[in-house]
Design a protein that fits this description.
This is Nucleoside diphosphate kinase. Its EC number is 2.7.4.6. One of its GO terms (biological process) is GTP biosynthetic process. This protein has 7 helices and 4 strands. The protein is α+β, with helices and mostly antiparallel strands. The protein binds adenosine-5'-triphosphate. The site of adenosine-5'-triphosphate has 9 residues, from strand 4.
Length: about 140
């Protein structure tokens, strides 16, 4: 069965949306395999976001992700990688479709990084790499 890494980012935890996000994952029929509350350090985030190093939003993104606890979840199900990204909605929460996590619960806050509540792995290779980082 396929697995993905879902993160409830610091904005989601601070806004007490962890339960709502877990509810949507479970209501879709996916299984929670493991879950932990993490205060991520820079090294973990640098590894997680290596592909974005050098981009203008990279440093604000890392600072944002270190600003508070993150909930890391190992989620399983057939085609869960694609399915969770569909549940999450597109990156920019202002234009994400209603019905999605970002579209229903997120908005723009005028900051240099999109505070968009969740992360989901984007391929089987990313999922394995990211799961081994967050569930080392
Ligand atoms: P994630 O990987 O977190 O699920 P994503 O795949 O939709 O999100 P990526 O392109 O991987 O987006 O970017 C990672 C994160 O960096 C985004 O979720 C967002 O928080 C931030 N980000 C991406 N692009 C921008 C941008 N142009 N301006 C500000 N922040 C951005």
């Amino acid at each position: 069965v396929e697995e993905t890494l879902v993160l409830v980012k610091p904005d989601g935890v601070a806004r007490s949306l962890t339960g709502e996000i877990l509810r949507r994952i479970e209501a879709k029929g996916y299984s929670l395999v493991d879950i932990r509350l993490v205060q991520p350090e820079r090294d973990l985030l640098a590894a997680h976001y290596a592909e974005h190093e050098g981009k203008p939003f990279y440093e604000p993104l890392v600072e944002f992700m270190m600003s508070g606890p993150v909930v890391a979840i190992r989620v399983a199900g057939d085609r869960v990688i694609e399915g969770f990204r569909s549940l999450a909605g597109t990156t920019d929460p202002t234009s994400a479709a209603p019905g999605t996590i970002r579209g229903d619960l997120g908005r723009d806050w005028g900051l240099p990084v999109q505070q968009n509540l969740v992360h989901g792995s984007d391929s089987p290779e990313s999922a394995q790499r990211e799961l081994s980082l967050w569930f080392a």
